[in-house]
Amino acid sequence: MPSKPPAPAANRLLAALPRKDRERFMVACERVDLQYAGVLAEAGEISHHAYFPTGALISLIAPIDGHAALQVGLVGDEGMLGMPLFLGVGASPLRAVVQGSGKALRIGAAAFRREIGSSPALVRLLERYLYVMAAQFAQTAVCTRFHVVQARLARWLLMMHDRAYSDALHITQEFLAYMLGVRRVGVTRAASALKQRGLIAYHRGDIMIMDRAGLEAAACGCYAADKLLYACVLADHP
């Protein structure tokens, strides 16, 4: 039996807006289906849309010297993709790739800027979300430097599980390498160790969460820190 409830029908950031602001914002959006492995943004390129996932999962990847990459963040229905537009800089420093297929609300850059200009409530909410994302990036940097690969993998799987609303996750070797910043042999060892402990089932890119509580115990403290920060800054938004 799935250990997660059915996915909510809307993006939680937008759901936190006052009704009039939310309704006006929704009129400016279009509903889109995001397909697995689709690229929504390339590092250094101008962003033309902002995305508010309602069921999709987006991986934020930092390129390194053009030869490697590291996943630094995840965006699900708790957040949005398009912070450079909010900050007025246009280009993103990160690559955004769809990690889990699903629906999202998409809004064009010009319309997004108009909404920002007309909704102080939206601005306050996005400022709080920006703070949470900056903290997530910093937490990932510390995690990658100081924590063992197996604990880091458990952390990312839990973060995906929270946003995917499913025990079944599809993660290729390439994405696992992005998550952990290690070579394939390190990916295999970490996934195999969690599998041997009965925490996950793993076969050719398909991961099933078997023991959520055990996976939380195996994760580093960064996962709990991420959740606490979200609860303190966003979950109790005014």
UniProtKB/TrEMBL annotation:
<dbReference type="GO" id="GO:0005829">
    <property type="term" value="C:cytosol"/>
</dbReference>
<keyword id="KW-0418">Kinase</keyword>
<dbReference type="GO" id="GO:0003677">
    <property type="term" value="F:DNA binding"/>
</dbReference>
<protein>
    <submittedName>
        <fullName>cAMP-binding domain of CRP or a regulatory subunit of cAMP-dependent protein kinases</fullName>
    </submittedName>
</protein>
<dbReference type="InterPro" id="IPR014710">
    <property type="entry name" value="RmlC-like_jellyroll"/>
</dbReference>
<keyword id="KW-0804">Transcription</keyword>
<dbReference type="InterPro" id="IPR036390">
    <property type="entry name" value="WH_DNA-bd_sf"/>
</dbReference>
<keyword id="KW-0238">DNA-binding</keyword>
<keyword id="KW-0808">Transferase</keyword>
<dbReference type="InterPro" id="IPR012318">
    <property type="entry name" value="HTH_CRP"/>
</dbReference>
<dbReference type="GO" id="GO:0003700">
    <property type="term" value="F:DNA-binding transcription factor activity"/>
</dbReference>
<dbReference type="InterPro" id="IPR050397">
    <property type="entry name" value="Env_Response_Regulators"/>
</dbReference>
<dbReference type="InterPro" id="IPR018490">
    <property type="entry name" value="cNMP-bd_dom_sf"/>
</dbReference>
<dbReference type="GO" id="GO:0016301">
    <property type="term" value="F:kinase activity"/>
</dbReference>
<feature type="domain" description="HTH crp-type">
    <location>
        <begin position="147"/>
        <end position="213"/>
    </location>
</feature>
<keyword id="KW-0805">Transcription regulation</keyword>
<dbReference type="Pfam" id="PF13545">
    <property type="entry name" value="HTH_Crp_2"/>
</dbReference>
